[in-house]
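Worked example (supplementary).
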Amino acid sequence: MADSPAATLQHAAYDSKIEGNVIFTQVDTAINWMRKNSLWPMPMGLACCAIELMATGASRFDISRFGAEVMRFSPRQSDVMIVAGTVTYKMALAVRRVWDQMPEPKWCIAMGACASSGGMYRSYAVLQGIDNLIPVDVYVSGCPPRPEALIDGLMKLQKKIEGEHSTLAQMKTGAAPVETEEAEA
Amino acid sequence: MSTASAVDIVQALQKEFGDAVLSTHEFRGEQTLIVSADKARDILAHCRDALGFDYLIDISSVDNFGSDPRWEMVYELYALDNGAKTHLRIKYVLSEEEKAPTVSDLWPTANWHEREVYDMMGIEFDGHPDLRRILMWEGYPYFPLRKDFPLAGKPSDMPDVAFTNAAPLAGGPFVTSPTSASTVHREPRSREMD
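After joint prediction of all chains, the assembly is encoded as:
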């Protein structure tokens, strides 16, 4: 068969060098796939839940299997804030400030009873759930939750990220990306 | 004096201060002195300087709400020189208008203890170098360990600093009652149900 320049151009899409390495997908799906497998947590460790959070990051449970091992102590490099522990009113606005410093898109996991609802601290000093201040994507029950529970919460968050339509919403409206928590509410 | 027993120390204090030591009692080998408020600082200074109580473990306060005088101050002293075998507890009562004398110049650790007493109970200290809140924030309007302050808290707001809301108690507080009956009787129950 003669290798005319015209034939090469015609069949460029079936080039044997790249055949099998090309997949077709949607932009949202691709972006969500990248986001969900590289969630950099902001470890907001405030009480005993932080110990379980550390265990989740350590070798036995190894949260890096889910791409979330890069604990960032700078909010500007973080994707998901894991609020692990009792949020006192004195700490609450500091948590809020760190959350505000995190760039979009961002997610929040309320880890344990205290972060979710104030837990056993029905008290003058404790914020009754971090969702009074910042939007929460996943609540993890437990006091403190086992590392498995936190990993399950992280997987639920990954499922949630899979279904987001941020790019599509942006293209349709021309507006800035819709805040994930409102879109998913 | 560091080898003296706790009983000897109590007797020495009674001899030194006479009527200012209102009463003494012993519980499981620990000596407690109830003293008069105006002599309390002198007695505490004497304990440190002459009796070797170089360690102030804690200062706490009691709210005897509904009775007068309302406040009771409690000082826990230890003498470390003799292997911390001597413990002494000194108490005195204060009415609501009175200020407590500071001991932060005697034991530097009293500085923060007294700030905590002020923060939680609202008792002020005469001569304290830096009487600010220590656990709650400056501007918080209440003293939360007073008996007339609700457990659930009260709403407050300091813009850009902190805010508080009343916590939902949902029928609580849920308290356990010691009993020799079954665990069913011991488990936490709402106080409202009784």
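Two points are worth noting when inspecting this output. Chain B touches chain A at residues 135-137, 142, 144, 149-154, 160-165, 167-170, 172-173 (CB under 8 Å). The longest strand of chain B covers residues 55-63.
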